[in-house]
Design brief:
flat; MetI-like fold; 300 residues; single chain; mainly alpha
Length: 300
Amino acid sequence: MSQQQVEMKQQHVESKQLEAGKQKRKKNLVLIIVETIAVLISIVTFIIPFYFIIITAMKTGPEAARFTITWPTEIRLWQNIIDVFQARDYMLVTAFFNSTVITTSSVLILAVACSMGAFVLQRRQSKLIGWLTSLFLAGLMIPSAVVPTIWVLEQFGLFKTMPGIILVMVALSIPFCIVLYTGFIATIPKEIDEAAIIDGCDGFRLYFRIIFPLLKPIHSTIIIITSVNIFNDFVHPLYFFPGADNATVQLTLYNFMSLYNSDWNLLFANVLLITIPPFVLFLVFSEKIVAGMTAGSVKG
């Protein structure tokens, strides 16, 4: 090969490298633009509304009624929070207690019952199991019926009771939890079950001593997602758990709204208070939510 051919070949390689570099820079520029747009959309969708809640909660009543995002002339956040807690004989305290009991009880039942049911559905193969799986999937799409549910609760003496609303919340969350647990359990090798049975484990010991601890990632996801959903639920406590003594945190928003007048500063202070616990929960455990959701997506 002559010197001229070698030089031409080097020039050709260099031109290819330059072209590849240009394409790479172009892709990086497009990626930066897309990421910037995504950040701006996130700011508009999440940060600005949250900023508006905080600003309004800091204002006086007349100033909050203007619905502006300007800084308050007089900061009354602490006084507004005190007024919110004192409203209607400290109803917010009762509501926090009720919501905490409902959320904690429902999540504990879901974590145990749904993981057990998913274990059976995933490990056993039969026509009945297939039908049951289809019913759980249908439960993700079919909405709840209010009037029949109230009738059933009344027949069992559970309407307007804490056990009744807990059972309603559990029933509404079962399909979602079953689907997540089933997908995760599919990644656990069946050889573990066989080895435990050979060592003398019965069904309950196999599940609670071996399988249940292995579900820790998906437990975290289920607990966090269902806790936030149940704690923030407004409609179902309104229908199935009415009464001033039975108020949950979302229902306390009615305290500051009326037909002719609304205390917007107190309303937004209330919104701020009931938003903080789920918001902190998501910030602290966001990585576990993603890990649990993706852990069961690929088998093997």
